[in-house]
Amino acid sequence: MAAYAARRQIFVFNMRTSTTRLCMLLFLLGSGCICFGVGQPLQFADKVANLTLSEISKNGPNAETASFVSRSMDVFWPRRNDLLRATAPFVESQEPATVAAAVDILYRLRSFQPQQGLGYDQKVWESENREFFKQLDSRVLPELDRLLSSRDNSVLRTLALYLGVSPSPASKAALLHLAKDPSASEQALICLAWHRDTKDLDSFEPFLLEGGREAASLPYHLRNSYGAAAVPCLLRALAGANSPFVRLQTAFELTLLNEKAGVIYLYQAVLRRDEVSNGIAQASEIKQFAIDRLGFPKGDPDLPDLEAFLKSKM
To answer: 129: Cβ–Cβ under 8 A, 6 or more apart, which residues?
Structure first.
């Protein structure tokens, strides 16, 4: 009994620290041991927010708190000014993990949007929060030179995410700088596409033409962000990209944009599948694309059937 009492006292003492209490709360929330009761959600949510803000202010953010904030933005958005004040100083930390967590939290604030429904207008939302977004930018953009010099991959990737939701000439220049770093290149180019500025399209072309497998996701993001305006850039990539992975993904996106050049590429790839080392695997991927997006029948049709199907789309 004495040993049990001693252990219990130690546990109670440890629970007095904000770090321990926050960890316990996160564990209980994640395991479902704590549920919001009638009349208590706001009170409990406020306590969680207070504890998290206290922990960040005293010890700095870490990956766990950043993850918790990202999943609880409905709780933290009403406390956005408090969260900004607690987090922003740690952008200047000398610890890469702390910097990455701080930038991650600021990214969540910069990119937050309420649940969209009838009457939601994104331009109105951005206008209403313009001053707050300026405050966020004022804590990140002046630190760009130092952040870009980091050799920590997590810092560079979270920085790319932030810059992707904060369109500006400085953000574009920084993202293109990051795009030259193999560890952040794909993320940086995707985030640049989030700006949806057609003036940026020419900036993607060198990466499509000269990039490897890491550039294969880019054609999707160009179609998604720019639509038909991306067609000239994608056509040049289809004709001249060094990577067969980039060319194939470009053909998929051009096909979805109703460009015959995309279907022709897919047809020829299936037709000549025995002439290249990865031809059969590529033909299988094209077959799945045709099933998912073009209406090619499921089941087990053979590749000659796929040839005929694609030829009918040309």
So the answer is: none
User: What's the predicted TM-score (pTM) here?
Assistant: 0.85
Asked if 186 and 274 sit in the same domain, the reply is no
For 225-260, what is each residue's pLDDT tens digit?
999 999 999 999 999 999 999 999 999 999 999 999
What span, in angstroms and rounded, lies between the C-alpha atoms of 306 and 314? 13
24 occurs within a structural domain: no
pLDDT tens string 46-91: 888 999 999 999 999 999 999 999 999 999 999 999 999 999 999 9
Return the ∠ at Cα 143 (arms to 176 and 155), rounded to 5°: 65
Answer yes or no: do 201 and 191 share one domain.
Answer: no
Query: In 10 A of CB 99, how many CB atoms?
Result: 25
The number of folded domains in the chain is: 2
How many Å apart are CA 158 and CA 105, to the nearest integer? 9
**Do 94 and 176 fall into the same domain?**
yes
